[in-house]
Amino acid sequence: MTKQEKEKHKEKFEKALNEFVKDLKTYVTTDTGEWTVKGFIDIYKNIYTISSDTKIVSKILEIHIFPEILQFAEKYGYKIILAEHQNWYPDLTIIDKDNSDAKFALDLKTTFRRNSKTAGFTLGSHGAYFKERDKSKNIQFPYNQYLGHYCLGIVYTREDFEDDLADTEIYQVQELQEEYGENQDPIKDRQVTNVANLKSITSVIKDFDFFAVEKWKIASDRRGSGNTANIGSINDIKDLKTGNGVFSKLGEEWFDEYWVNYGTATMMKDGKTVKVSSIWDFLEFKGRKDLFSKVVTKGAKRKRKDQE
């Protein structure tokens, strides 16, 4: 596939993905901005509220929007392949039905607001499959077979409850009620709250922001979590939505080269050998301090004094 053909496929995919994202908010939220998922239901029509734990919320959100993703694929002429194993990259491989070489990686990334302006998440590994791009270890297809690597980002606000007991409440909703014999409903010793309708149950999350962007455009020059080989995102929500990350003006090639070499490239500082672990160090290491002006400093590590 020529470079021009690749760009044409990318433009088509990005346009379709952005159209899809515009409608997601309406699908998952009420008219007041709350999540339409209120809990899970048993055969007696008791509604059990869910925990606001991020792992639980993330998984249910993925399940919630998956039917919409299938419709997106059908509408725009793509097929979807799910990751064969839980820890494989990406979450979804999206392939053009008319050209199997037009593959796109899509990861679903959900996170809560730390405050009104910030949120963040990890963007995948910079380890084996990222470095050895023609290999298929822990990845659905080799990294270099994908025309683009995208994040479908979901940022939300967690509802503040007075105590953790709110996570275990049970409701019976009048609009769903059905008559059962006294001994048929096994809930006897737990309090059940009667409410008029589902909307009156407080959702555990609300106020969603959705965006879709190539992951290199929202990457920082920091690891995403502890000592694991994960790329961290920038944290400003506005910049996440507009793709204004550390490498967004430098280009994808610099993102790739930086993270392929992260933690392994070394340089001399004050007569000592140290690992390169910031974009400033890396550009200096490559002899390209002239590119300092292209770094989006807001999401980057601080410069050393001698680099200012």
TrEMBL record:
Keywords: Endonuclease, Hydrolase, Nuclease. This is Restriction endonuclease. It comes from Algoriphagus halophytocola. The keyword Cell division does not apply. InterPro entries: DNA_rep_MutH/T2_RE_sf (IPR037057), Restrct_endonuc-II-like (IPR011335), Restrct_endonuc_II_EcoRV (IPR015314). It comes from the Bacteria.
